[in-house]
Design brief:
The structure holds two protein chains of two kinds. Chain A is α/β, with parallel strands linked by helices. Chain A has 18 helices and 26 strands. In chain A, a hairpin with a 2-residue loop joins strand 11 and strand 12. Chain B is an alpha+beta fold. The chains are: A alpha/beta, B alpha+beta.
């Protein structure tokens, strides 16, 4: 092998061992963020000649720097952004120095892009927060800092940019830094380095310059090369979420995943959570090879000494230091959905490799990202952040986000659109679930039902106002009662005046209204009754939530299908007329949507059927 | 998993095999074949299929083939659209895949820098850069509506340098074209094009010369320019890459046909 090749091998070895630092830059359009990143890439020679040529032609076309090259154009990738001069999405950039590799997440600064910023921050070790030296600490600087703190970043750089425009004045810099330190004291940053610089001219970006001779700290790159990379801990207790059970043949059963914390060796005692089964690691396979040890961040396949039951979503943990398991949590939630979040609705929740159904059971308070203030809230809008109670359909293996990002983070997914609508960070488990165990009652629902000689059920009537739900439900109850069945009819009138007196007709209140009714119906079914529920219940997700409370075959959805023209013609209570005059808001069918049932057990087209016939249909199908 | 036989595909295949070892990866490889790839690429493809024990699916756009579409006769833009973009959509529709792995990297091109690792396509395979799902931590939302699909780019955050380092470190087999050798080339529009078969339409005054060249990326041979180089070992290639002053896509003619051209091709379904 030639001498040159030996050198390359040594070089590659050294390079492969370089750590990767991920950082995020935050600041608004005018703070010169894209220019600063462009400068970092340009000066660290991570721009190729053809890219430079393209930059020169782009600068003439879109540039804002006159004859100079507009380095921001290196970063603003999408056409729409170049034309509008703004950064609307997270862009990832890569560069390297002799000491480290860097991945930069360049994120937009406007308040309506909070979710994009959080996305960039979720994987970053360090945040570079830009302020314009002429403007100092602004509301948006505080917002960026709060989001950065919330996402668990503990190392922050305050980059006081555009020092060239304030004559490289030290007093201006000192005042801004003092301002910022006073504000940031509450945000829990472990490291805060303030650096005066000019992205446009390059002062203090890679190298220190005479313009800022009074500054004796590191340049931005020097600091990024030296700042400690905090994150998952090699010495912590072993945790690995199982991604896949690999079973190519009868002789091999391996559990694949990426080590979230700690390390693992053959012979280690481990447990499978949430079950708690104890066993021993037989082998650790990294790629094609068995290894003596694997550490945090490594993707491995682990074989176990015993035939234990473990599947995707379970977590392998150190046997004598297992993680917590719970089904109710206190968490921070950033809402990312276009539609507001209403407590009581069900969402899919993904945490580690586990997917469960989750419900926000209450909003403790909403946090104003601009002021840090706490506010009461009934719903959460796009880009809003709150502390919430969340409950899951199955127990979840977790760690607080502050100590482990992998096992402390989750996303929420809308059940209908499948969009990612929320990002959450678990603070702690609410003890309620684990401390008060459900009492195993000996007299159960089956015992109660036996006594009544009937099959308890919930018959759920949904349809527009005036569709004939209550008429049919009334008639059905009379027939059932006559047949000796124990029944109860829940309708809008008897619930709205009592239990739900405090609720109005906003979307959030309607969700809560249905949740309470569904819970009451469930208790009554457990008590052995046949419950008839007659509610407009216009939203699919609420009807699905109600269905989820009952066992297989216990929930019968009856769609009373009457065309709106007919309902409006009948208008028994005069409500349609009122709504048309604008005196009633959020009226289903007029200015609030009715989502048609997709698979009702019973579909009654009242245009073709008289109430009598409807009731006969229902009884036939129940039998 | 998309398999284009290039260096990124080679790394992807290697990673997949490691991830599922001792089982073979539980999905097939898909090669969209324009019929204009280098001969060496076809040879390498057959070798890797044999070694990995995976199933290989290939697809060529039948209409394009019947119409004799090629880069010389129809231009690079039309050729790429018909034989790559449309062909890919046909293959995905034909097999009904709802998830496809690809080896694209964010450092390759500006519009890729903003693409998610899990990138969603509508039923018509279109990419909407303004409606991307937020991607936090390593939590990926894999739910899709019927007819939609996901393209997954696991090595999004790798750079060209990382690819070469990894190939060297793991001794991953690659197509010999990446290493310099004497090859028959023609100077066309200022770039060296290798004459890989008898379909090259010689213009007045164009002559085949033997040059020591290699390729930084591999695609259709008429659309992939060679660079003059003495780097005939992996180590030498890496040393050269470290000092390179041109980006690897420089030799790719489809990137610069028109402004924002890669972003447009991607919205239409290009990988």
């Amino acid at each position: 092998m030639a001498q040159r090749d030996t050198n390359v091998l040594a070089f590659v070895g050294k390079q492969a061992n370089r750590e990767t630092l991920r950082f995020i830059t935050c600041g608004s359009v005018d703070d010169g963020k894209s220019t600063l990143i462009g400068r970092l890439l340009y000066e660290s020679k991570n721009i190729f000649d053809d890219q430079l040529q393209a930059l020169e032609s782009d600068s003439k076309r879109y540039g804002t720097q006159g004859e100079k090259m507009d380095l921001a154009l290196l970063v603003d990738g999408l056409q729409a952004e170049r034309e509008q001069g703004i950064t609307i999405d997270v862009a990832y950039r890569f560069f390297a120095s002799d000491k480290r590799r860097f991945i930069v997440a360049d994120t937009p600064g406007h308040e309506q892009y909070t979710r994009n910023m959080a996305t960039g921050a979720s994987t970053a070790h360090v945040a570079v927060i830009l302020v314009d030296a002429r403007k100092g600490v602004l509301v948006q600087t505080r917002r960026h800092s709060r989001i950065v703190s919330l996402m668990g970043i503990r190392q922050v750089v305050l980059a006081v940019n555009k020092m060239d425009l304030v004559g490289y004045d030290q007093k201006t810099f000192d005042a801004t830094v003092a301002d910022y330190r006073a504000f940031a004291a509450e945000l829990g940053f472990e490291g805060l380095q303030a650096i005066p610089l000019s992205g446009l001219d390059g002062d203090n970006v890679l190298t220190r310059t005479q313009n800022l001779a009074w500054y004796d700290g590191p340049s931005l790159l020097e600091h990024l090369e030296a700042v400690p990379i905090t994150g998952a801990n090699e010495r912590a207790d072993f945790r690995m979420p199982v991604q896949l059970v690999n079973r190519p043949n009868l002789d091999f059963r391996g559990f694949c995943g990426r080590i979230a914390e700690g390390s693992v060796r053959p012979g280690d005692a481990v447990r499978v959570l949430p079950a708690g089964t104890r066993t021993t690691v037989r082998a650790v396979i990294d790629g094609f090879d068995e290894v003596a040890e694997a550490g945090v961040g490594t993707s491995v396949t682990i074989t176990l000494a015993d035939e234990v039951d473990a599947s995707r979503g379970d977590v392998l943990v150190a046997a004598d230091a297992p993680a917590e398991v719970a089904d109710q949590f206190d968490a921070k939630l950033l809402w990312m959905g276009e539609h507001a979040m209403s407590p009581g609705r069900q969402y899919l929740m993904r945490s580690g490799c586990k997917e469960v159904t989750a419900t926000i059971t209450g909003i403790k308070y909403r946090q104003d990202v601009n002021t840090g203030g706490h506010m009461a809230a009934k719903t959460l809008e796009l880009n809003e952040i709150a502390t919430v109670d969340i409950s899951t359909s199955a127990p979840l293996v977790f760690e607080p986000y502050a100590s482990n990002k992998v096992l402390g983070s989750f996303i929420l997914i809308d059940k209908l659109t499948f969009e990612t609508v929320g990002a959450g960070m678990i603070d702690f488990a609410l003890r309620r679930a684990s401390n008060i165990h459900w009492q195993a009652l000996e007299i159960d629902r089956a015992a109660r039902a036996r006594l009544k000689h009937q099959t308890p059920r919930c018959i759920w009537f949904t349809g527009l106002s005036g569709s004939g739900k209550s008429t049919i439900a009334d008639l059905l109850e009379k027939r059932m009662h006559a047949a000796g069945l124990h029944t109860y009819l829940l309708d809008g009138d008897n619930v709205r005046h009592g239990l739900n007196r405090d609720l109005g007709f906003t979307e959030a209140d309607r969700v809560e209204n249905i949740r309470r009714v569904a819970e009451v119906a469930r208790l009554m079914v457990e008590a052995g009754l046949v419950v008839l529920v007659s509610f407009i219940s216009p939203f699919r997700s609420e009807r699905r939530m109600a269905r989820g409370l009952f066992g297989e075959g216990e929930f019968i959805e009856v769609f009373v299908d009457t065309p709106i023209e007919e309902c409006e013609r009948r208008d028994v209570k005069g409500l349609y007329a009122k709504a048309r005059r604008g005196e009633l808001k959020n009226f289903t069918g007029i200015d609030s949507e009715y989502e048609l049932p997709e698979h009702p057990e019973i579909h009654l087209r009242t245009a073709e059927l008289k109430p009598d016939e409807c009731v006969r249909r229902i009884i036939e199908s129940l039998n | 998993m998309m398999y284009s036989v290039g260096k990124d595909s080679s790394v992807m295949l290697h990673l997949a095999r490691k991830a599922f070892h001792p089982a073979p990866p539980p999905f097939p490889l898909l090669h969209v074949d324009t019929r204009w790839k280098f001969k060496d690429m076809y040879t390498h493809r057959e070798r890797m299929v044999r070694e990995s024990g995976m199933r290989l699916l290939t697809h060529t756009n039948p209409e394009g083939l019947a119409a004799g579409v090629g880069p010389f006769t129809h231009g690079s833009n039309y050729h790429t659209d018909v034989m790559k973009t449309q062909a890919l959509k046909q293959a995905l529709d034909q097999h009904g895949f709802d998830l496809v792995f690809g080896g694209a990297r964010r450092d390759e091109e500006k519009s890729r820098a903003k693409e998610r690792i899990f990138s969603f396509r509508s039923a018509g395979h279109r990419w909407d850069p303004k409606a991307q799902r937020p991607e936090l931590w390593n939590l990926y939302n894999t739910r899709i509506q019927p007819g939609a699909s996901i393209r997954v780019f696991p090595i999004s955050n790798w750079t060209e340098q990382d690819i070469w380092n990894y190939i060297l470190q793991e001794r991953i087999p690659i197509v010999p074209l990446y290493l310099a050798a004497e090859r028959p080339v023609v100077k066309s529009n200022g770039q060296w094009i290798m004459v890989d078969d008898d379909r090259y339409p010689f213009k007045e005054g164009e002559q085949v010369v033997m040059k020591k060249v290699r390729f930084r990326t591999l695609g259709c041979w008429p659309l992939t320019a060679a660079v003059e180089s003495d780097a005939d070992t992996l180590e030498a290639v890496i040393a050269e890459t470290l000092n390179a002053r041109g980006s690897e896509r420089e030799g790719r003619m489809i990137d610069s046909d028109e402004p924002g051209s890669m972003e447009k091709k991607k919205q239409e379904g290009y990988f």
